[in-house]
């Protein structure tokens, strides 16, 4: 984050930064502290390769896969300027877009981060205590998930559901995660961005860490045994990045815009607007927690 601040102009001026490029850099720097670079790049290459293959019929995929550049790229080569990023980058970008839009909601999130980090430690407990930020992240993911469909699986043997429906062997199944998240029978005022929604809901015992938990109304991380094993790492990475931005910067959309840019839907995948810039300005009262 300190290196990214060098791109911001001094004198209290606003600096426009490409949101996608910034999100990728921040996520990669965070992942590089835990994983060697070639493994950190592997997921991006894999997602890009999979997405590219979707436009081709099944019978041609083995041939096309061998010809695609992403299929021949070595792990260490990376893909800094090609394809879309992984779910962590997409989610971080969605939160940033909503943060630039939701000016009145940033104050409570920043005050929470200051209160939690007064000890000066970025610990697991500190991140777990950022409950309002956790709620805002979940609300962001509810309205802008990385994919409309999740829980992708292939039935290995016939399965009979409780209502008598039989899933035959070889069937491909998915869950409509986005539709569940905006279902008015499940969520009150589903089209409304309500940052504290889950913060208020989580006061119910057993719902303290909703963003990284699976639930029948929240399937973006999967469900039951088919649940994302990296959800805790992603949760921590996003919280550290967003909290750092809130502590050190003001942010807004250029030209006085207040609405986040529309995303592109490619099949079931949601891709943030790749051309969007977000303006940053260093705070005069910036709080620095390393």
Automatic annotation (TrEMBL):
Keywords assigned: Heme, Iron, Metal-binding, Monooxygenase, Oxidoreductase
Gene3D superfamilies: Cytochrome P450
Positions of heme binding: 228
GO MF annotation: an example: monooxygenase activity
Matches recorded under SUPFAM superfamilies: Cytochrome P450
Needed co-factor(s): heme
Family from the record: Belongs to the cytochrome P450 family.
Protein name as it appears in the record: Cytochrome P450 monooxygenase, putative
Species of origin: Cordyceps militaris (strain CM01)
């Amino acid at each position: 984050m300190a290196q990214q601040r060098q791109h911001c102009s001094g004198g209290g001026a606003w600096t426009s930064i490409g949101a996608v490029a910034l999100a990728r850099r921040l996520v990669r720097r965070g992942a590089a502290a835990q994983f060697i670079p070639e493994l950190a790049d592997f997921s991006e290459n894999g997602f890009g390769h999979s997405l590219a293959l979707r436009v081709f019929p099944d019978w041609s995929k083995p041939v096309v896969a061998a010809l695609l550049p992403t299929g021949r790229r070595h792990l260490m080569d990376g893909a800094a300027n090609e394809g879309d990023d992984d779910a962590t980058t997409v989610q971080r970008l969605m939160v940033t877009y909503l943060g630039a839009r939701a000016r009145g909601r940033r104050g409570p999130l920043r005050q929470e981060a200051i209160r939690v980090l007064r000890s000066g430690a970025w610990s697991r407990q500190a991140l777990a205590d950022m409950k309002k930020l956790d709620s805002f992240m979940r609300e962001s993911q509810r309205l802008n998930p990385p994919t409309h469909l999740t829980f992708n699986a292939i039935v290995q043997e016939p399965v009979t559901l409780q209502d008598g429906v039989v899933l035959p062997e070889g069937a491909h199944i998915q869950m409509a995660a986005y539709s569940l998240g905006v279902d008015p029978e499940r969520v009150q005022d589903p089209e409304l961005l309500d940052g504290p929604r889950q913060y208020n809901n989580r006061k119910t015992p057993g719902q303290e860490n909703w963003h990284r938990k699976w639930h029948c109304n929240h399937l973006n991380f999967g469900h039951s045994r088919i649940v994302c094993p990296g959800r805790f790492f992603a949760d921590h990475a996003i919280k550290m990045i967003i909290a750092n931005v809130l502590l050190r910067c003001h942010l807004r959309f250029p030209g006085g815009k207040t609405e986040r840019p529309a995303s592109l839907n490619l099949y079931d995948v949601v891709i943030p607007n790749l051309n969007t810039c977000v303006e940053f300005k260093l705070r005069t009262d910036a709080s620095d927690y390393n």
